[in-house]
Design a protein that fits this description.
By secondary structure, the protein is an all-beta fold. The chain has three domains: about 35 residues, no CATH class; about 280 residues, Neuraminidase, CATH 2.120.10; about 270 residues, Neuraminidase, CATH 2.120.10.80. About 0% of the residues lie in helices and about 40% in strands. Strands 1-2-3-56 form a four-stranded mixed sheet, with no helix packed on it. The protein has a four-stranded antiparallel sheet with strand order 4-29-28-27, with no helix packed on it. Strands 5-6-7-8 form a four-stranded antiparallel sheet, with no helix packed on it. The two termini are about 20 Å apart.
Length: about 600
């Protein structure tokens, strides 16, 4: 008979409680609770949508290609219908236009450096087009036309191997809907076997040999909104199981005829937010889009996708990002406490190598100059700052060998301009801020830092940049506040939350090296939070809003999403690390707590009969 050791290679461990050394899938015996247990990854059970960067030019009935982090969106209405925008995972940038203006066009392409645009309707004279253009990452080039001019068609594949199917012929045709399919070999289009059901404004996804056609509308002899799904095997179309809900005027998402995402669309009477997943056999309803609409461009796969633009949405430039089920769920775990209790100090560094300095000790409160270094397992006290103070700011991307502290307060109301630099052993006083203040925000490194907003008898909006020697005043923040927090560098930073004079704010501003711009707010207004990460991927945690909070939010470069709470809610804490692995420490009461964030976590399961 097979044994566990014989199958797995190790014996079952006997451990009193939850075994910390267990790897995913490993079985152990909990001798305290007399249970057999194992551990497995904690992942999301369903996919989710969140906002992404908007198109520069809002439009509808455009086309897309590429992936969720490297996409291309092109064509669409309103004119000129030639606009092309490239997405790099963070922002859209306008690149060279198509040669021909068009909307309701077909598209193919699995990257943003190689795409195909074909068919469509002219945005200037409403003529139906047979034009085909290929994108090489820089320019569009006209190549051989489709055999049948048409609009409102679907397509999929790459710029060298693609298919175009369905659509609408010129309005003078006897039957407007079209079932024709054409195959592209990189040079020419060839007519191949037709769809079983002629229709227009359907979705299509997959490759030239493994494709799916779904939804659409047929206006002749009477209007019929389609649920039909057809599967292409490289030779023929075969009818398979229908969508749960008929919709049209959408673009497909998927990389084969066994995996697809049908998102939003138009029902014939209203915009829809419904989303369905195809598993090769059936469609299953899943998480709806946040912003109902139709006529968007798309890119990606059934597990990771973008939809951009469209009709009926809050804006015709809006973009949403889809992340499928099975993503790791982040969690906080208790870590080693700091040595000296305090709040309103500053921190910097990484998950396994952090530094914490300054702050206010518990009542009877006094400012602190204590400095502690974290090596991944213990906190060690090192040389103090020269000037004890609290409500300081730091260069948040500093390290355990090169950090910067600036501003702060030594009660009763001494708003400091002092700046000190840490070299791994000692703190040295360097040139002061131009405007002394406390409860300010900070970002950057010890040689390139940013100080912003804060308090000096009143809230101030001043912003200063540090070049390693001097502070220079630069453009101010838009919303004056204190106890707001910062993350990032001195050329790309965020200023988040704060206390504007009463209550708390959810305000969020982004610095581009020259100006501050208001961007998407945090979900829960608060101040005195901890931070980790950078402007493309940041984390805020805990803080204060009428009471101490435990909330954690994740920034993807465009918007904030709530993730797992800290175990202990508190304000006046500090942080270090990234969105993958972070450290939150100090703050609140008793002021010594530290927690470690992991972007993935495990679930412990008890075996039962």
């Amino acid at each position: 008979m097979a044994t566990y050791k014989g199958t797995v290679g190790t014996a079952v461990v006997n451990y009193a409680g939850n075994y910390p050394g267990a790897v995913d899938g490993e079985l152990w015996y909990d001798s305290t609770n007399k249970d057999f247990k194992y551990r497995y990854p904690n992942v999301t059970a369903a996919g989710s949508w969140r906002s992404q960067a908007s198109l520069n030019t809002g439009r509808v009935e455009l086309a897309g290609a590429g992936t969720s982090t490297a996409a291309l969106m092109f064509g669409g209405n309103p004119g000129p219908g030639t606009i092309t925008e490239l997405f790099n995972g963070t922002t859209f940038s306008e690149v060279n236009d198509m040669s021909q203006n068009k909307s309701t066009l077909g598209a193919a392409g699995k990257t943003n450096t190689a795409a195909l645009a074909f068919g469509g309707v002219s945005t200037t004279d409403n003529s139906y087009r047979a034009d085909t253009e290929t994108w090489n990452g820089t320019n569009w080039t006209e190549v051989n036309n489709l055999n049948q001019a048409r609009a409102q068609l679907a397509g999929c594949g790459t710029n060298t191997l693609a298919i175009a199917f369905g659509g609408r012929k010129d309005t003078g045709a006897t039957e407007e809907e079209f079932a024709g399919t054409e195959s592209w070999n990189g040079t020419n289009w060839t007519e191949v076997n037709d769809l079983n059901t002629a229709r227009q404004l359907m979705a299509g996804s997959g490759t030239s040999t493994s494709a799916l056609a779904y939804g659409g509308v047929d206006y002749h002899p009477s209007t019929a909104y389609k649920t039909e799904t057809e599967l292409w095997n490289g030779t023929n179309w075969t009818e398979v199981n229908d969508l749960n809900a008929a919709r049209y005027n959408w673009q497909g998402i998927g990389d084969s005829n066994t995996s697809a995402l049908a998102a939003a669309g138009y029902t014939g009477t209203a915009n829809s937010g419904l989303v369905e997943l195809w598993n090769g056999t059936n469609w299953t309803e899943t998480t709806n889009v946040s912003d109902d609409g139709n006529g968007y461009g798309s890119a990606g796969t059934a597990t990771s996708a973008l939809i951009s633009g469209g009709n009926g949405r809050s804006s015709s430039s809006v973009t949403e990002e889809w992340t499928g089920a099975g993503v790791g769920v982040g969690a906080w775990a208790t870590s080693t406490a700091i040595n000296t209790a305090r709040k309103y100090g500053s921190g910097a560094g990484e998950y396994t190598a952090a530094i914490f300095f300054a702050g206010r000790t518990p009542p009877p409160s006094s400012p602190s100059g204590n400095t502690e270094i974290w090596d991944g397992s213990t906190w060690t006290e090192v040389n103090d700052m020269n000037t004890a103070r609290n409500e300081t700011a730091s260069a948040t991307r500093g390290t355990t060998t090169a950090s910067l502290v600036f501003g702060g307060d030594t009660p009763p109301n001494d708003n400091h301009a002092d700046t000190e630099i840490w070299n791994g052993t000692n703190w040295t006083e360097v040139n002061n801020l131009n405007t002394g203040r406390r409860a300010l925000g900070g970002a950057g490194t010890s040689t390139a830092a940013l100080a912003f907003s804060g308090y000096n008898s009143t809230n101030v909006n001043n912003c200063e940049t540090w070049n390693g020697t001097n502070w220079t005043e630069v453009n101010n923040v838009n919303a004056t506040r204190r106890y707001g927090v910062g993350l990032g560098t001195n050329t790309s930073a965020l200023f988040i939350g704060g206390y504007p004079g009463s209550g708390s704010t959810a305000a969020n501003e982004q610095w581009n090296g020259t100006n501050w711009t208001e961007v998407n707010n945090i979900n829960t207004s608060r101040y005195s939070m901890g931070t980790a990460g950078t402007t493309p991927a940041g984390l805020i945690f805990s803080g204060y809003h009428t009471t101490a909070l435990a909330n954690t939010e994740d920034w993807n470069g465009n918007n904030w999403s709530e993730v797992a709470d800290m175990n202990s809610g508190r304000d006046g804490l500090s942080g270090a690390g990234t969105t993958t692995n972070a450290l939150g420490f100090s703050g609140g009461s008793p002021g010594v707590l530290a927690e470690e964030w992991s972007g993935s976590s495990d679930v412990t399961k008890v075996l039962t009969d």
